[in-house]
Amino acid sequence: MDIKLHSCLHHPTLRLLQEPGCEITTCNLMYPLFLVNDDDAEETIASMPDQKRFGANRLRKHLEPLIEKGLKSVLLFGVIDNSMKDENATHADSAENPVIKILPLLCKWFPKLLIACDVCLCPYMNHGHCGILDDDNVIQNAASIKRLAEVAVAYGKVGAHIVAPSDMMDNRIKAIRDALIADRLENRVSILSYSAKFASNFYGPFRDAARSAPAFKDRRCYQLPSGSKGLAMRAVERDVMEGADMLMVKPGMPYLDIVRQTKNLFPQHPLYVYQVSGEYAMLYHGAQQGAFNLNEVLLESMKGFRRAGADCIITYFTPRLLDLLEESD
Ligand SMILES: NCc1[nH]cc(CCC(=O)O)c1CC(=O)O
Ligand SMILES: [Zn+2]
Ligand SMILES: [Zn+2]
């Protein structure tokens, strides 16, 4: 018999039935935001068109309509002036940190919003690396994870629901887990580990947005080589054993096999995928040059993440997707 497939495809609802588990709802999206200290700031980011760094007041105005459209969760990044950076990332958790300042306001303005904080030292370090360096510019792992745990606890104390360490130091999840328990925050704060985070060229635009590019060398001594799948799975496994509540693969589109492997290995852990700044820029500019329709290509990329096994997609396109979801109702 000739096998017929077109008979499954002639109606939109029939087509949806062929995509089980790939639906995109507001719960499947997390929106990354860059926060700065000047309350009235709304700074454009050259490398990331349509994305901005917000001060508290502008952030509130920006988020109000998005919450109306169903925005469920955000991921916060603090950005400070270079003059405030030092060798110990002092302002990662000081009273002058924009995340520490704005988080309590966000909780008050939007009590239902799920708020995650990126935990790293690079945006607050004068050298731009994700850990503390010794005199030979080598990462001091023990000192780094101690500092990262302090930062995670500080974000937890001001109301973060999720702390998301992106630094990739060894055993940071255990250090953060222990510190949260010591401060009795373990029932109020989840750990979303950037468990399979690859050293990637796709982070370029972000490093401009967050002013967090390393001043010398690169991050290959602590982020994964792009071809490594065994080591990626060891990293994921280690983070699960150390107490990660949720897992992440980053970047997204070039690493869909890793998304699938991670989901297969730990199906019980919610899995995030980060469609990073370079992917954002690539789709944005590609569409602008007429290579494809942005909305169409965006929805296709979302389906791809879901099909590969991602439960939640961290994407700068979240506002656009919220509009698309409204239209499709
Ligand atoms: N550790 C900081 C951090 N957290 C998230 C990203 C990348 C996000 C993006 O590109 O959108 C980076 C950059 C890096 O590791 O160099
Ligand atoms: Zn970092
Ligand atoms: Zn190196």
Molecular structure report:
Zn(2+) 1 binds at residues 120, 122, 130. InterPro entries: ALAD, ALAD_AS, Aldolase_TIM. The chain has 11 helices and 10 strands. The chain is α/β, with parallel strands linked by helices. An 8-stranded parallel barrel has the order 1-4-5-6-7-8-9-10, surrounded by 7 helices. α8 (256-265) links the parallel β8 and β9. The two termini are 39 Å apart. The model has no long low-confidence stretch (mean pLDDT 97). The structure holds ligand PBG and zinc ion (2 copies).
Characteristic key phrases:
single chain; alpha/beta; TIM Barrel; 11 helices; globular; binds ligand PBG; binds zinc ion; EC 4.2.1.24; porphyrin biosynthesis; zinc ion binding; ALAD; heme biosynthesis
Draw up the topology in text.
Blueprint: H1 12-17, E1 29-35, E2 42-44, E3 52-54, H2 56-68, E4 73-78, H3 98-109, E5 114-119, H4 141-157, E6 162-165, H5 172-182, E7 190-197, H6 204-209, H7 230-241, E8 246-250, H8 256-265, E9 271-275, H9 277-288, H10 294-308, E10 312-315, H11 318-328
Parallel strand pairs: 1-3, 1-4, 1-10, 4-5, 5-6, 6-7, 7-8, 8-9, 9-10
Antiparallel strand pairs: 2-3
Helix pairs in contact: 4-5, 7-8, 8-10
Bound molecules: ligand PBG and zinc ion (2 copies).
Ligand PBG binds at residues 118, 120, 122, 130, 166-167, 203, 206-207, 212, 219, 276-277.
Cofactor: Zn(2+)
EC number: 4.2.1.24
GO biological process, one term: protoporphyrinogen IX biosynthetic process
